[in-house]
Amino acid sequence: MSGSIWLPPGARPDTFPTIPEQRGTPSWAGPDPIDELADRLDDFVAAAVHPDEIAALLESDGLSDDQIRERYGVKNSFALAEELYERVARRHPEPDTPPHDPWRVGLLTCLLRGVVFALPGFAYALGTAAPLPLLASALTGWTWNQGLAHRAYTWLGLGDERAAKRSLLRGVPTGVVLGTLAAWLASGTADRSTAFAVGQSLYLGVSTILLVRARERALLLALLPMAAGAILTLFHPVPNAARLTLLLGSLLVVTILGLLEIMPQDNAVKGRGELRDQPRRTRSRHTTAGPPLFSSFPYALFGLATGTLVLHAALANPLTALVLTLSMGPAEYLLHRLRSTTLTALRSSATPTTFRRTTTRTLLHCLTAYLLALLALALATGISPAPLLLLGAVLWTALLLQSFGAIVTTTAICCTAALAQTFALLTPLTVYATAATAQAVLAWALLGKATAHR
Fold it and tell me: pLDDT per residue over 366-381, tens digit each?
């Protein structure tokens, strides 16, 4: 019967099975425009981790919701993005270039820093002075300049180079005064030792400037004449006037180089003008809201503790300080290599267990390599290897923990070790072994956490 549907007696329309709606595109309708769009945006859609990324791309191309409804038959850009996300398989290709590795550094650069650290020791061969004032001045300088370097590096990390220079310009004279005062209190009078301590304190301050500014080569060239003169004294007598000239000449050159690094440049006025044009919030972050002074205190205390441990070893054998200083070159290189390797493992490891296994293996390899380098130096200089290796393990693991931000923990361990050795509470071997073991265990536990490598 035309215009009606015949139903058997007692049947209801809602009891009959329904025919599924045909949503596919008929063969005569041509290619699906969404499929065409998916093919065109294939690389971007495949790498997207959420449909909202695709929606943002569609909106940036100027597609309005009306155009999307007309061309693709969906409600809006978000609906179209979800369709594209479902139709394209996930692919996350590796970048064309290797990811940036901030920890990659050359071995030669680190070895150069180790030589630069050791060269000032030749100054003691040219000048003679009572040891106690110099030791007091050196400890004060290591403590102060360690904290000063941390503050300058923090400013540089915040992107405020002028504030870093300003902190160095103010901090170095203060360190010279403190070092001189410590030498004067240790000697009880103003004599040759005090004068030598003034020069030592000045050198520690300006060399900190050059090292923070990555001017190791300039510092090396400034120290070479003095070091050559000191080596000459081992084979031939050198007049006192020549000794004094070499000492003061190197100190003068280093001081000039340091001042050139931190003195205001000609474009300082232009920089202030550019700073004035920045938003108020950005300007305050770079000028007033800097790192608190107290944040550098643990680093200064760390310098005091490690310096005390090294001085105790140097009093037993002066060559120990030289060997440990030279070994800081390989130590820095291996620390950078460890950070670089663990960063790669963080990207490539599929499970936390695999990551921890890789970091543990890397830690053992790097520590072993450093101790082997230290052993070679000990055998070459005739130093007893056992205490040297244990003290080296303390210093290297302490630097490792410091580089991962565990400064408070490692400072507490090193301070405890320094106090125990100063007051002869334990034998040096026991102090070194206990501190090295504690720091190695802490380093192993810390390195196994992925969040520690941010």
Answer: 999 999 999 999 999 9
